[in-house]
C-alpha cells in the first residue's frame, strides 16, 4: 500500500513538472513569435508613457521632494561662487589633456553619435527580441527626450553666458538665441550621463558600473577643459539626468512593462551632498 502511494505521488509530481515545463516553453514560444513590428509599437508606447510620467512627477511631489529641490538650488548657488575660478583652472590644464580624451568627450556627448549608438543598441535588442536590451533602450530614449527637452528650454530661458568670452558666469540674457548665451545646463553632460546611468543600472557587478560611469564622465569633464561650460552647468546637467532616468526606470518596473527582474544587490544609491561651497553626487555601492 505504501509503495503504491509513493508510486502514485511520484507520477503526479512528474506529470506536474512536465506540465509546468510545457507551460513555460509555451509562454516563451509566445514571446518569441511576437512580431518585430508589434514589439516596436509596444516599445514606442512604453517610451511615450515614460516621458509623460517623468513630466507629470512635479504634480505629485511631496514635502521631501520640494526639500530636495531646495537643497539642489542652494547647493548650485554655493557652487556658482567658484564658477569663474573653476573654469579658469580647467582651461589652464587643457594643453596637457590628451587629444584623444577631448575627442572622445566631444563625440560621445554629441546628439548625432548619441542617437546612432542608441539606435544600434535598440535595433540589436529588437531583432534578437532581447527584452532587457529593449527596455534599456526605451529607458534611454524616454529619459534623453525628457532631460533633453528640459535642457534645451533651459538654455534659451536662462540665457547664461558661456566661458571663454568677455562675460562672467553671472551674465544672463533671458530668452536669448545667441549661442554664446546657451551655457546652462550642459547638453553633452545630459546626454552622456543619461546613457551611462541607464546602462549602468542594468548591471549588478560593481566594477562594470564603475567602468560605465567612468566612460560617461569623459564628456562632462572634457567640456570643462575646453571652456565650453561652467562647473554648475555640468553639475546640474548630471543631476537632471540622474533624476529623470531614476524616475522613468522606476515607472517601467512598477508597471511591469518588461517581464524580467534586476537584483537590487550591488545597485548604486545616489545622493546629493552639499558642504560649504561644494556640491556633489555620491554613489553608494
Automatic annotation (TrEMBL):
SUPFAM superfamilies: Acid phosphatase/Vanadium-dependent haloperoxidase
Record localization: Cell membrane
Keywords: Cell membrane, Hydrolase, Membrane, Transmembrane, Transmembrane helix
Alphabetical list of InterPro entries matching this protein: PAP2/HPO (IPR000326), PAP2/HPO_sf (IPR036938)
Gene3D superfamilies reported in the protein's UniProt record: Phosphatidic acid phosphatase type 2/haloperoxidase
Record GO terms (molecular function): hydrolase activity
Annotated Gene Ontology cellular component terms: plasma membrane
Topology in the lipid bilayer: Multi-pass membrane protein
Domain Phosphatidic acid phosphatase type 2/haloperoxidase residue range list: 138-249
PANTHER family noted in UniProt: DECAPRENYLPHOSPHORYL-5-PHOSPHORIBOSE PHOSPHATASE RV3807C-RELATED, SPHINGOSINE-1-PHOSPHATE PHOSPHOHYDROLASE
UniProt name for this protein: Phosphoesterase
